[in-house]
Design a protein that fits this description.
By secondary structure, the protein is α/β, with parallel strands linked by helices. It folds into two domains: 118 residues, Tetrapyrrole methylase, N-terminal domain (Cobalt-precorrin-4 Transmethylase, domain 1, 3-Layer(aba) Sandwich); 119 residues, Tetrapyrrole methylase, C-terminal domain (Methyltransferase, Cobalt-precorrin-4 Transmethylase, Domain 2, 2-Layer Sandwich). The strands form two sheets. It has a five-stranded parallel beta sheet, with helices on both faces. Strands 6-7-10-8-9 form a five-stranded mixed beta sheet. The longest helix has 13 residues. The model has no long low-confidence stretch (mean pLDDT 93).
Length: 255
Amino acid sequence: MGTLAELRPGTVVLVGGGPGDAGLMTVAGRAAVEQADVLLVDHLAPADALAWARPEAEVVDVAKLPRGAFTPQERINELLVEHARAGRRVVRLKGGDGFVFGRGMEELQACAAAGVDVRVVPGVSASVAVPALAGIPVTHRGLVQGFTVLSGHVPPDHPASTLDYAALVASRTTLVVLMGVANLHDIADRLLAHGMAADTPAAVVARGGHPDQEVISAPLRDIAQRAAGIAPPAVTVIGEVARFAASHPLIEETV
């Protein structure tokens, strides 16, 4: 794989940008951005990180906004390969970690199939970072011994859903829901239907790590109604640890 200090032309680097604040990116991620000739950037990638790019670097917006601008994944894969084959150093910058409900593996496979040198720089996943920034540990000694990260992209009764909600309730782990704002009501109802206590603590953390971070706490039975005005991106935590939720970011703005 080599090192980022020796990033060669014709190489693609898949960089996880963390939960939104550029100060939470890894050192390796910043080094990749600083060397890039081309950056393909998602809308959840830390915007301030682009200040590290060279002035002549090309920045390509490949956002996938619900009911908004949308770049098909197939086109993103093509762009990665096209730019690399043209001898450019290519950085694919996205929010969180690209291998946690992202399309990072698809991009890696597309590059590998095309014979393009591809490297991965993991990012700080919003699944653990955003709760922490709101004062919520996903595990806590004597309280809970595990956590489960699930996608709320589709509702429980959708044909594409592979989640076993009865098993989730039986696991007695903290549940961390990503991409679940639109389907939170259905998710909460399904958990309740499978026996999760109605007074189970829950919290929704919106815009985690940003100065306008917002935290809404409520029992599971009420969380969807209380968070009805929240817009993505947001992370939902369900379980006893949600009692620890703080109403403000627990780090100073770093960029």
